Amino acid sequence: MVGKKFDDALGASYRLVEKVGQGATGAVWAATDLRTGERVAAKLLYPQHAADRDLVGRFIQERAVLESLRHPNIVGFRDLVVEGEQLAIVMDFVAGGSLRDRLDTSRTLPPGTALAAMAAVLDALAASHEHDVVHRDVKPDNVLLDPEWGPQDPGALRVSDFGIASVMMGDAKSTTGLIGTPEYMSPELIYSGRAGFASDVYSAGIMAYELLAGRTPFAGPGTDYAVAHRHVQSRVPVLDVPEPLWELLSGMLEKDPGRRPGAQEAAASCRELVLLVAQLPALEPVEAPEEFEGAHPMTVVRSPGVESAAAESRPTAVVDISPEPELDAPSGATRLRPVTPHQPEQVQLGTTGAESAPGPRRPGKRMVSLIIGAAMVLVGVSAFAILRGGGHLFPPHRRNSGPVKASQQDQALPTGLGIRREAGYDASSGSVNLTITYTAQKAPLEGPFLEVVPGAADGAACPDVTWLGGARAGHNLTTTSGLSVDCGWSVDPGQVPAGQNLQVQAQVPVTFDDGDEESAVQAWLDRAAAATTAAVTDSSVESTHYPVQRLQDITVKTPDKVVNQSGLEISLLPVWPSGQDDLNPLYKSPSTGKPSSMLEAVAGGESGVRFSDGCAGALTVTSDGLNVAAQQVADSCTVDAQVGNFTDLTSSSFQIAAHGS
User: Fold this and answer.
1) Which SMART domains match (predicted)?
2) Which H/E stretch holds residue 264?
């Protein structure tokens, strides 16, 4: 915001400290929350946006959506300030710089670090997509790093600016207009101005490529329009990485958005590959190719009166030619340009022999202009027409012969547990080879985990499952777990390390008589996942069993009043689907005895617990983060806590009173 001085007021509750960045929609300032003394970040939109009543109204309408985006890898939305000429979004302050800053220093990252970081980014995208929010501007500049980020904790990052681009363009789910950075724009955003969830996955794929190669795949000589044209037309230059990693990258960078994986599926794939590439060094920065290989043959545009070279007749198609996108010299900056309505010109693609006049005829000036304009956007228009018609830009992959395969991916749980199930059905043996992959985000996790393995059809007898590879598994006992579920198994794969995964395998004797075996196997796998989810989210069950799957939240409980210069008693209470559990705390501070088995399961024990001062210096915390004491009198105070994957916990307000009061 031009002309702002340090310490300027932002509304009644914040004071600006210093400008820390600037983008297409506004400037980012470090600020202080005058109510708590906390450092926050404030994005001040440019005055022309603040003067747009419709835009301000959309931000106010979408405030609840932005507030609902609570995830460890998303920069939290705190407040919206609308006052006079000020329109500002107040967010969490993240002190470790951006992923762009790291790339500016190191150029490339080791594949293991890059994949772990991308898994966290994709987790954030998956969470936003659950709330129908499209990011639209995924790039390293918008990935902010916590101070502890590094090779040992590459998932300690947060994605910023969620929802802002969509609100700027007027729709939170499928938006129209050119906003974004050309090097990261998806083909469908370029040729239609529309972006959905698959566009975010594409941009994440571009960023993953850049983390590995030191450059985006289509960067090179020419203007932004040349770069955008390559997104639509050119093949992705191949990198020297293991084949499974390249398959993941190329899948995320499919031209057809319908063939890209979802964000959660891509995140799980990243985690599965981390161990495969963990020992590989970073690639040397890759130079741009001299020429970009076309993804498919160019289509020839013919106008009426231009004789067809082919002997056979072709149908005539009428195509709406949009104006050429307004893109400038290439750069990494975000562009914000609405796509304005236009009156379409009708151009005929192809002619029949009967329509061609005998002998050549020179096209007029208007037709020459149309041909040139059509050539500039032909690939995009053709692709858009195909996709709008439900087709594909390229033929679908053909399935290899062999077992019928199916897969299913759960949404990551609040504890950070991700579960992916894969089934391979062999009709000749009448059995399914079931592989279950458990992943952990910020904290190590321990089982046992509940898995429902049903019969081939509803009502069928439970199969006699054989668990392989040394996994400890037994039937779920209702008397022990409190969960009454048919065909339930208690599976203990051991500890799942933070940012990594563990797999268990089982042989399941089931036979599918349905003629469509592929659909039957997928339906069986989906039914297993749905039954498992229903069991662990049953609100009628009051139990502490399967805490990693059943824990919904954690309440930080303190006394309503504490005397100054005394220790603060804190209880961490689990919140199950049935509600808050006051009788079985996860942890108490000051601690006595061993940590609870629940805390070991969801956070790796005391090492996963940290308290911090939420009272602007009125509290002191020991160096291990486990004990808190009142330091000075305060009318209203809170204590913050981090427990495993729950990184944004805050107690209710309490008073610090003077002695004798």
Assistant:
1) S_TKc
2) helix 263-277
pLDDT score, position 379 = 40
* pLDDT tens digit sequence for 523-571: 999 999 999 999 999 999 989 999 999 999 999 999 999 999 899 999 9
Q: Are 189 and 195 in contact (CB under 8 A)?
A: yes
Bridge-based pairing of strands 39-45 and 14-22 is: unpaired
- 566-576 in b/e form (b: 16+ CB < 10 A) is eebebbbbbeb
User: Which positions ≥6 away from 427 have C-beta within 8 Å?
Assistant: 404, 511, 512, 517
Q: Residue 178's Cα: distance from chain center in Å?
A: 21
157's enclosing H/E stretch is: strand 157-159
Q: Catalytic: 137? A: yes
Pairing of strands 654-657, 561-563: parallel
Dihedral of alpha carbons 600, 606, 610, 615, sign: positive
Q: Which of 124-133, 188-197, 375-384, 518-527 has the lowest mean pLDDT?
A: 375-384
Q: Find where tokens 């070991």 sit.
A: 600
SS3 597: helix
Task: Please give the average per-residue pLDDT across 153-171, as a whole number.
Answer: 71
| Pairwise CA distance, residues 227 & 648, whole Å | 40
Rounded to the nearest 5 degrees, what angle is found at the Cα of 365, between the Cα atoms of 364 and 366?
Answer: 90
Tokens of 618: 């009125």
Alpha-carbon distance values, 197 to 133, 136, 257, 398 (Å): 8, 9, 9, 25
| Model pLDDT for residues 51-71, shown as the tens digit of each residue | 777 667 666 666 777 777 889
CB 282: neighbour CB atoms within 10 A?
17
Question: What residue spans of 455-499 are helical by DSSP H?
Answer: 478-481
What token pair was written down for 264? 């959660």
Are 151 and 113 within 8 A, CB to CB? yes
Domains and CATH numbers, the chain: 9-92 (3.30.200.20), 97-287+300-394 (1.10.510.10), 404-541 (2.60.40), 551-657 (2.60.40)
The CA distances from residue 611 to 35, 627, 646, in Å, are 20, 7, 12
Contact 610, 642 (CB under 8 A): yes
Consecutive H or E run containing 202: helix 197-213
Cα Rg of the chain, angstroms: 28
Q: Both tokens of residue 197?
A: 């969830």
Q: What does each C-alpha distance from 568 to 388, 571, 572 come to in angstroms?
A: 61, 10, 13
Give percent helix, percent strand, percent coil of the chain, each to the nearest 5.
Answer: 30, 25, 45
- Which of 457, 452, 402 has the alpha carbon at shortest distance from 426? 402
What distance lies between CA 132 and its chain's CA centroid? Answer: 12
Q: Which of 123, 137, 141, 224 is catalytic?
A: 137
Instruction: Please tell me whether residue 607 adopts helix, strand or coil conformation.
Output: helix
In terms of pTM, does the model score above 0.70?
no
Helix and strand counts by DSSP (H, E) for the chain: 15, 35
DSSP letters, 90-108, are: EEE--TT-BHHHHHHHHSS
The annotation status of 43 as a binding-site residue, yes or no, is yes
Residue 205's pLDDT band, with cuts at 50, 70 and 90, is very high
Pair of tokens at residue 604: 């790796």
Q: At what angle do helices 99-106 and 197-213 cross, to 10 degrees?
A: 30
**What's the chain's length in residues?**
661
